[in-house]
Amino acid sequence: MVVRFKSGKSLRGALIYNERKLDRGEAVLLTAVGFHKDADRLNFLDKLKRLERLAEKRSTVRHKCVHVSLNFSPRETLSPDRLKVIAADYLERIGFRGQPYLLYEHRDAGHQHVHLVTTPIQANGERIDLHHLVERESEPARKAIERTYNLVRAEDQKAEELAVLRPADLKKALYGKAETKGEISRIVRTVANYYKYKTFEQYNAVLRQFNVEADPGEPGTRMHRHGGLLYRMLDQGGNRIGNAIKASSIYDEPTLTFLQEKYLVNKRFYTDYSRVRCALEDALSVGEITPERFREKLSKLHIDTLYYTTKEGGIFGITFIDHQTQSVFKASAMGPQYTAEKLLDRMQVTPVSKELAWNRLFVQEVLRQTDYSKGFKQVLAAWSQLGLVVTTQSDTNGRMQFRLGHINSPPDQVVSAPDRMHAYLRQHIVSASMINQFSDHLRCSGHVPLVAPMQTALSTLDRLVTNMDVEVTEKIFSLFDQADGYARTNSFVDPELLKEAKKKRRKRRL
């Protein structure tokens, strides 16, 4: 028997998760112990209020919900009565005797398993201590129950039997086929808890394979400043569709804080590249092959291949997602012979130049580490200190376009700013002449950035700049001071003016 013990803040979230399974016919409520009605007569509010009334007796406690799943071997078939006895015995052994609880049997997996929902707050207002409860109480209880009821021990179950506890057959979300929040939650909880991503970009890369995307907000927005996170569904073309779901509304609360903790945990895991390495060697053994055909061959083995391309279509990076081992990594992580450049050479595809590929990674890393809450002047100063410069050019419609790159890079090797960054820059930059004047000043002043392209690893950017170059900062401030109150040459409106307009509209309604 495998036990998964979770404590959380939301009783409502745990109940909703189980009740939705109930509504879809994927679960049954076996019993409700300590409630004023029989299980079949309880509605959602009856269940929630009973547990919440207990939780309110100790309002200072954060973790008011305990959600446990007891998972049995696929070789075992237990009657509902036996499941009730095992669940009651388990709760008594871990110190929850006398606590009201709901027992659901889920029938949506290849193994029999039940879910227990209860609260650690007792009728007298005392809290059952959850600290180290898994090690001190749950593990000994699990072993004793396995002996008492002659269950298959967790240690004896084969790897393939344990694998069914992980929903490896996760399917893509299809908008309109099921409730949006339920579909997003199902995918996000699986990816967040089981895949070995080490960065936000890798996490999002996996989510997009299932038509879901995590959105931290536009740079400079309130949501971005406060570390908010939304999840959105994508259509077959990768475009956002439907309403966004807050990370905090999903049962496990996969917020940015949660993800940052997972990055640290996942970095400790050893990544086995052998399966992907063997698969790509087999695919490349036929000689000349197109990137699309290469992707198709690996897809048959449940390995997704992601190509990072320029707007012109050139490939400058490759990432692999192995759904069998739940691993995600860059091709270069497997060794120098597996970089995007080397793999494209073997496919006989012309890769993007090293300078342009490096610039893309350099820009991506600087933008990721930027603190946009300090204001645009300080953002521009920080970029300049790292060697990132902004240049402009006009498109065929006369609209200002921004390009980013290292100060020492040739003009034809800098990269176009991401769409979100275009909006951010247009909102703050006064004119093309102003930003070009500043870039020229940097080049002529002999300003030496911290990072030299192609010679210094991107990891040096982890050292955040705290002391801005005085001359650079003063030059930025003087350019903005000359700009006559941040006059915009585009159609973007100052956020302060928008706030003032909203206030006036509210007054008129009153």
β-strand number: 14
User: How large is the count of helical segments?
Assistant: 18
Quick one: biggest sheet?
Answer: 5 strands, antiparallel
Question: What shape does the CA trace take?
Answer: globular
Task: Walk me through the topology.
Layout: E1 2-8, H1 11-23, E2 27-33, H2 44-55, E3 65-71, H3 80-93, E4 101-106, E5 113-118, H4 133-148, H5 159-163, H6 180-194, H7 200-208, E6 212-215, H8 222-225, E7 230-234, E8 240-246, H9 256-267, H10 274-284, H11 291-299, E9 303-309, E10 315-322, E11 327-330, H12 340-347, H13 354-369, H14 376-386, E12 388-394, E13 400-406, E14 415-416, H15 419-428, H16 432-445, H17 470-481, H18 495-509
